[in-house]
Structure formats: structure tokens, C-alpha cells
């Protein structure tokens, strides 16, 4: 079994306890560390300014929006929409609260979990982002897969082909909302005075 630990003398110790071997590397002086100036180095790829948020605990405030409990910053999941909190769907003769189910799904996905978001754009008081937890590499994709969310119809949010594919599969197998009759959330918001 290999273990690594940092000592107060700034040496890196790597031990193979099963073999009884140990390798100690002396500390590297700052002058020995090569630095790369990404602004001037030719042929170096640098990602865009899409720094992910620090891991955060969140509180869900709508079916696709949550808030960092520390900073109070709001985040909305990129590319998806879901039933509004007061919205219902009809499965046969039974009405069910699709908005409540969507909120419950997001609460279950984020409660007591660290959430990290990569911003896509900033709207009024909310950051539109792609978010992940330790269990879910993409929360919005998992919502689509479960049939809890719907891809947004506007062009800026239809740029992730896998989202459309996941929605098609959920529709094909009648998962979640796709087993019911319902109004698209954006149309529901327009027709309801207090969505």
C-alpha cells in the first residue's frame, strides 16, 4: 500500500509499506521550478474563463434553481426547465404535482452534498451554470434522464447535444413527466398569474 505525506521539512515521502521501501525526495527550491507564462508561450492551450465555483452547500429554491448557503449566490441549471412549484400534470385520471416532484428530486440530488458549478453566463441576480455533485457529473443531464426536466426551446441553451438525446430517451420510455399530459413550463408561466 502506498502512502504519501507532507512533512514539516517540506519533503515528499513515498513509502511502500508492503515492501518496506521508502523514497524521500528533497524539497525543490523555488528557483528550480519552471514557470509557464500562458499569455506569451506559443502553442499553449489555455481554457476560457470558466472557473468553477468553490464546492458549496445549497438550498433549493425552485425546480431548477438553488442558492449557495454561504454566499447567497443563486444558480440556475443551464439548458433545462421543469414544472413550476404549483404546476400539475395528469396521468390518466390522476393529477399529480409535477413541480413539487421536480423540487423534491433536486433537493434529494443536492441535500448534504457538495455542489460545484461551472458558469455559462450571468443573468439578473442568477448565474446560469452546469453543476455537479460527487454522485452526478451533470445534475441537469440526470434530471433529463429521469424525465424530471425538459430541454429549453431557445437556441442559446440547446448547445449540448447529449441533453436533447437524454430527453428523447426519457420521452421514448415514458419516464417521469413524459408519462403524463402537462403544459410546458415556459407556457405555464405565461398563462398563470402567479406561477
Structural overview:
With 195 residues, the chain is an alpha+beta fold. It has four helices and twelve strands; from the N terminus they run E-E-E-E-E-E-E-E-E-H-E-E-H-E-H-H. It has a domain of 134 residues: OB fold (Dihydrolipoamide Acetyltransferase, E2P). A five-stranded mixed β-sheet has the order 4-5-6-11-10, covered by helices on one side. Strands 1-2-3 form a three-stranded antiparallel β-sheet, with no helix packed on it. A hairpin with a 2-residue loop joins strand 10 and strand 11. Helix 2 packs parallel to helix 3. The N and C termini lie far apart (57 Å).
Brief overview:
The protein is α+β, with helices and mostly antiparallel strands.
For the structure shown, list the relevant keywords.
195 residues, alpha+beta, OB fold (Dihydrolipoamide Acetyltransferase, E2P), five-stranded mixed beta sheet, three-stranded antiparallel beta sheet, 12 strands, globular, disordered N terminus
Summed up, the helix count is 4
With strands numbered from the N-terminus, the spatial order across the biggest sheet is: 4-5-6-11-10
Number of strands: 12
Round the mean pLDDT to the nearest integer and report it.
78
How would you classify the helix and strand content by structural class? alpha+beta
Biggest β-sheet: count, sense, barrel?
5 strands, mixed
Amino acid at each position: 500500500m502506498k502512502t504519501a505525506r507532507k512533512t514539516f521539512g517540506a519533503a515528499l515521502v513515498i513509502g511502500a509499506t508492503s515492501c518496506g521501501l521508502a523514497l524521500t525526495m528533497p524539497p525543490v527550491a523555488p528557483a528550480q521550478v519552471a514557470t509557464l507564462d500562458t499569455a506569451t508561450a506559443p502553442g499553449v492551450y489555455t481554457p476560457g474563463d470558466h472557473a468553477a465555483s468553490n464546492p458549496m452547500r445549497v438550498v433549493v429554491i425552485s425546480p431548477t434553481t438553488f442558492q449557495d448557503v454561504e454566499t447567497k449566490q443563486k444558480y440556475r441549471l443551464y439548458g433545462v426547465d421543469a414544472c413550476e412549484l404549483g404546476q400539475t400534470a395528469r396521468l390518466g385520471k390522476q393529477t399529480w404535482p409535477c413541480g413539487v416532484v421536480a423540487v423534491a428530486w433536486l433537493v434529494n440530488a443536492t441535500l448534504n452534498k457538495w455542489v460545484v458549478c461551472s458558469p455559462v453566463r450571468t443573468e439578473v441576480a442568477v448565474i446560469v451554470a452546469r453543476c455537479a455533485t460527487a454522485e452526478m457529473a451533470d445534475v441537469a443531464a440526470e434530471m433529463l434522464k429521469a424525465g424530471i426536466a425538459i430541454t429549453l426551446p431557445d437556441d442559446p441553451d440547446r448547445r449540448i447535444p447529449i441533453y436533447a438525446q437524454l430527453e428523447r430517451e426519457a420521452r421514448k420510455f415514458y419516464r417521469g413527466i413524459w408519462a403524463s399530459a402537462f403544459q410546458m413550463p415556459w407556457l405555464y408561466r405565461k398563462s398563470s398569474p402567479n406561477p
